[in-house]
Amino acid sequence: MGRALGALYLGSVGSTYGIALSLLNATHLLIISLGIIIAFRCRLFNVGAEGQQIVGAIVATAFGLSMAGTNGVLIAVVLIVVSVVSGALYGGLAGILKARWGINEIIVTIMLNWVAVVAVSFVIRGPLKDPTVNWPQSPLIPFNSWLPFLIPGSNLNLSLVFAFAMVAVVYLLLFRTPLGYEIRAVGANISAARANGINVRRIMTVSMLLSGALAGFSGGLYILGVIHQLLDVRSSGSTPPWAWGYTGIVVALMGRLHPIGVVFASIFFGALLSGMSAVARELSVPAPLVDLSQGIVIILVLVLEAIVRYRVKRS
Amino acid sequence: MAESIYVLFILQTIALSLPIAFAALGELITERSGVINLGTEGMMLMGSFAGFSLGFVFKDAWYGLGFSIVVGALMGILMGVLCITLKIDQIVAGLGVFFFGLGLSAFLYRAQFGIAAGLPSIRGFQNIQIPFLSQLPVVGPLIFGQDPLFYISIIVLVATTLLLDKTMVGLKIRACGENPAAADTLGVSVTRIRYLALIIGGILASVGGAAFVIETHVFQENLTAGRGFIAVAMVYFGKWKPVRTFLGTLLFGGAFAILPYAQAGGICVTSTTCIPSYIILMIPYLLTLVALIGVSRRAREPSALGAPYRREAG
Questions:
Q1: Which residues lie below 8 Å from residue A103, measured CB to CB, with a gap of 6+?
Q2: Phi, then psi, of B35 in degrees rounded to 5
Q3: In the 8-state DSSP scheme, what is residue B306?
Q4: Among the partner residues B91, B102, B285, nearest to A45 by beta-carbon distance
Q5: DSSP type of residue B36
Q6: Looking at the complex, does the CB of residue B103 fall below 8 Å from at least one CB of chain A?
Q7: Which domains are assigned to chain A?
Q8: Checking DSSP bridges between strand B267-268 and strand B274-275, what pairing results, if any?
Q9: Which of A211, A272, A263, A241 is nearest to A87 (CA)?
Q10: Is residue B222 very low, low, confident or very high in pLDDT (cuts 50, 70, 90)?
Q11: With B227 labelled, which of A2, A74, A176, B164 sits at a CA distance of 20 to 30 A?
């Protein structure tokens, strides 16, 4: 027990390496949960962050590999743009299907996740395969485009700054722009929104586009900042953020669907994830401990919220 | 012998459709009572673990199947507590149950088996051979010499149809799905009926998960790979009718049955044009999307689907 707590502490907040890993986890959780907020606020349940991240990562890698020899900053900017756009389109697809035909976006995004998982294993064995190794992976993207690391010896990189910038962007979007107002109006009461002349179909599509854009952004940043190449989904380093599409939802709900709330929730979960994997290494217990804890956390969050709501109503 | 290859393919199609069929029939009953259960995938995963766990310990899959019934009922009750008693949004509650089942099944599997050197596996069921009839060509193996799961699924299909259309409970279930306020006025406990529907749905989803692991013999994290969500989609596809839903799942059995042929570099239509194996791996998921788009304009769901029932104050 003492060993487990020690590992939990050192692996999450008790060492420079632990802090760096926790913040790296938090970076990606923050970006995808901001996207999930935009969709959920519109009452669209985007469960497809994983697929949207993967598509963003694939497209970013493809562009990165074809731009060797160009200015590094230019490559980085282009990669971010294409990953955002491709993630947006992949998410927007589910948005259009929902807006046009009322097709359940949860089922669509889950199916698209699996399509993306298959797609990545295809491209790293086919078009994007590194011909110099006998192993399914892509070559490294040009070195000069890699995002600068913030703490030497760790993978924490400039993405962290982008993530916090996104908090402000999403906050302003949701609470200070007409579009944000319309997104929240559609989510709060769809028939009232329609009666007030809001183009519900357009708002649904746009909010899924924005949601997918942020997930794609996270995928692109993971390529630019951490792994610098496309790897198999199951072996993308120790912290593949596309394993966290569902964690992002837990974070978004814990942060009460508010951009400031998810900052705290994603740091908490980022530290929990890095701490738990340290425990798993220390005790040679398997990693699903993390899955278990997040399964239990979400049930607890839901139950507590319901109880609080009940007591507020009674008093 | 060419004929027997087709028979084998049809057998595999049926076998691979059964897990989805069980879950879809359960989801159908739940949805007819007005509750959309997106926890199906998590329930299937828990059922897979339950089936594997006791199937391994007793070296007999029947114990696993039995255990999955208990686990499924508990998962149904969990969903009921969240979305009926606590009145949490059904979609959010369903996602919660999905994550819960995903995490708990992976964790329990590791807790029981550790990081074993070899991959532990269980034995499936022996086919039931009906004397004489099972010797007939084609229909023999397809109808009279099948896996017990096949016969169980037919029983469940018939029972679901009869339950919904011919019994008082079925009438109450449908009433709660179409007009819970009216059902309440007539003295039907909407809460009790929806709990009952969720327990039945949980059991069937869990049995579907157990059926999958009994057929594939090994457990791994997230092994059902979206089948629970495909089952939900199949209920839409089947327009909330048991037989249509059941037949729809056969389509997916077929899509999954092709997969082993796809591993070896793709399926060749002619000697030069081959469909890459990765496209084939995507087929079940793309097919689900096409199926949903195809029926979207004609489907009519139970009126009260997705709405938690609150008695008006007064």
A1: A97, B292, B293, B296
A2: -115, 125
A3: T
A4: B91
A5: -
A6: yes
A7: 2-139+149-314 (1.10.3470)
A8: antiparallel
A9: A211
A10: confident
A11: B164
| Residue A157 main-chain phi, psi, to 5 deg | -135, -175
- Output the average pLDDT for chain A: 89
What secondary structure, in 3-state letters, does A143-211 show?
HHHCCCECCCCCCCECHHHHHHHHHHHHHHHHHHCHHHHHHHHHHHCHHHHHHCCCCHHHHHHHHHHHH
* Residue recorded with tokens 């990765």: B278
Contact A108 B289 (CB under 8 A): yes
* Residue A248 pLDDT greater than 60, yes or no: yes
The per-residue pLDDT for range B152-166, each reduced to its tens digit, is 999 999 999 999 999
Domain residue spans of chain B: 7-295
What confidence tens digit (pLDDT) does each residue in B25-54 have?
999 999 999 999 999 999 999 999 999 999
Of the listed ranges A38-42, B118-122, B236-240, the least confidently predicted one is B118-122
pLDDT at residue number A243: 67
Residue B154 tokens read as 């037919």
User: For residue A203, what are the CA distances in angstroms to A93, A179, A181, A185, A197?
Assistant: 14, 8, 10, 10, 12
Which among B98, B226, B292 is the nearest to A103, CB-wise? B292
pLDDT mean over A241-254? 81
**Higher pLDDT among residues A106 and A216, named by residue:** A216
Residue B138, sorted as left (phi over 0), alpha (psi -120 to 50) or beta, turns out to be left
Residues 6+ apart with CB under 8 A from B128: B145, B146, B147, B148, B151
Amino acid in the structure at residue B60: D
CA dist B310 and B314 (Å) reads 12
Provide the CATH number for the domain formed by B7-295 in this structure.
1.10.3470
Average pLDDT, chain B: 87
- Selected residue of A40, A103, A107 to mutate for chain B interface (largest B Cβ count, 10 A): A107
Q: What is the pLDDT of residue B78?
A: 96
Residue B90 DSSP code? H
How far, CA to CA in Å, does B249 sit from each of B207, B208, B244, B253, B288? 16, 12, 9, 6, 10
B40 touches chain A (CB under 8 A): no
Cross-chain residue pair B289–A111, CB shorter than 8 Å: yes
Q: Do the chains contact at A302 and B297, CB–CB below 8 Å?
A: no
